[in-house]
Amino acid sequence: MSDLISDRKIDHSKLQVSDEVAIQITNMNKWYGSFHVLRDINLTVNRGERIVIAGPSGSGKSTMIRCINRLEEHQQGQIIVDGTELTSDLKNIDKIRSEVGMCFQHFNLFPHLTVLENLTLAPIWVRKTPKKEAIETAMHFLEKVKIPDQANKFPGQLSGGQQQRVAIARSLCMKPRIMLFDEPTSALDPEMIKEVLDTMIELAEEGMTMLCVTHEMGFARQVANRVIFMADGQIVEQNEPEEFFNNPKSERTQQFLSQILGH
Amino acid sequence: MSDTSFVRTEMLPQKAPPSTSVGIIGWARANLFSSPVNVVLTLASLYFVGYVLTSLLPWVFLSVWNADSLTECREIMNETWGSTHGHACWGVVNDRWLQLLYGFYPSELYWRVNLTLVVTLAALAPVLFAEKTPRQMLWLTGAYPFLMPWLLWGGSIWNPVVAALGFVTGYVVYRAVSEIAGSLLAVVATVVAALFWWFVLAAPAAALLSDIVPLTIETVESRKFGGFMLALLLGVVAIGVSLPIGILLALGRQSDLLVVKAMCVGFIEFVRGVPLITLLFVASLLLNVFMPPGTNFDIILRVMIMMTLFSAAYMAEVIRGGLASLPKGQYEGADSLGLNYWQAQRLIIMPQALKISIPGIVSTFISVFKDTTLVSIIGLFDVIGLSTAIRADTSWNGIYWELFAFIAVLFFVVCFSMSRYSMYLERKLQTGHKR
Ligand SMILES: Nc1ncnc2c1ncn2[C@@H]1O[C@H](COP(=O)(O)OP(=O)(O)O)[C@@H](O)[C@H]1O
Ligand SMILES: [Mg+2]
Q: What is the ipTM of this complex?
């Protein structure tokens, strides 16, 4: 896998982390039936942090970030997002979901709606934004992800990279304070990966709090302020990217890095 | 010659395809005569089609239109062609077509049936061709469930108005209660209020209103309903009501709430497990046993309910198939944006699930429509019942083919239209590339 994927200059002065806590996970455990998929997860994410989560397949990366917006339910421990604790209270869940954006590996765009309708749907129905305003916001974000000319097409008519950028724009239209990415580039051809990563870098520069499951180690090096390595449902190691890549402490991490970086 | 390196110096322009692959000749070559087996099959099929047509067409067209009885028909045939074999006697259709269409509906009130048909089509238009009709027509669609029965059965205009007010009452109560209490309580209060209105207040209110402003059209009793009109009436109601019920049943079957799920599964499996005709017998005979003596529960209404429930069960299974084929990502996409359950269902899940299910849904519609002929077995005079009645008349005793051909054409026109519409809809809803 290539090391530095983006040739884009990143303005590191803009990448500021505040002291304010955005996500607080304490002693979180989750089981699928009797399978202990997440074990004692403790993680604090401050506002403005860009966290990359790596780890072998099946290590629970997706499950962990999906717990943050309650696509999966945890059974033990505490998750506090933006000051609201995730419980089975549906009102809280819908509130958190509307403030936490999520991008999936397979985009999950709505194929029966046009790109523009995909973008305006949630603002109109969840935020009760007037339609005209929602369309303006949608066009603004489509321009940001550089595909305003595709507004009236259906997702099925776009390339994978374009679809993923629409998906990012769709999340942004809800003006989220936190963005979750679950392998956003894994289903894309190499030449499309860059356009999606560029979009994500721009988001980082705007101070978005981001949790990103990805194998793009170049992105991790350049953008992340923290890399988390997971294995067997546990956080095995976390560190600043420089340290993480150049000087991994645990054996599992070293093994994983040597596989993924092909050293 | 080992010439592995190659560079194109000139790009090729687009050429027209060879003439053998275009036009009628090209088409016939590709589709009818592409191989020896294909040639044999084509010729055999052509022979078969020709054989059927040479016997059918003379029967249809060398036929008697003006005759008042089968005997008269036969006389005319003998005079004209020297034999009664191979000629249709359309005299029976000519003589009885009004009855076959309208049953025993009073002939001076046929206009009400015709008007109902027009209103039905107008109410359907904004549903079937949403973007080609003005949105205001949806008002007619909304009023249709109240307008249609009034036009057909007649009586005071206040009956349908009062019935509609039940929904208004429910809505008002819902708004009021949901302000101060939870949504479950609001739903319960709504149902109670609406039922209270319909069963306790509605009748006196309608009577009072018609005393003040008497607006009444002539009443037609249910036993006068019949013919193809009855099939259309039962079909429209069963189809129109079973779709929403089917959607709810399908959702209920997927529900996390165990009681809801069990009830939906039980209902669906029970209804699918018994023949429609037994349900119709229950409607015609058994329900009387359970009703308090003296209550008059209209037979057509009973049949409507049974047919609706029957097709709703099938509809639920068809829609469940559509739901099952949606990728889980669609639910997650909707959830991650903060849409609640009903929003996600209405805006994301159902539009796609229903689209996938269109062929199955329309098949169910078509079979429900054809199943309306079963009501002849419980003594209603739909077209089949009438054809038996017509044959009981001495002048038409022994005539089968012509009546059934006429009935077949009536049903075919409606069913084929539904089938074509479903294809149109599938094409219209096609988005993106098929992979
Ligand atoms: N719905 C589920 N039911 C049971 N097991 C599951 C389910 N989803 C994931 N798993 C299991 O949980 C583990 C973690 O999955 P996941 O979080 O998707 O891993 P990752 O994203 O790191 O590849 C895997 O072993 C997977 O098989
Ligand atoms: Mg995963």
A: 0.91
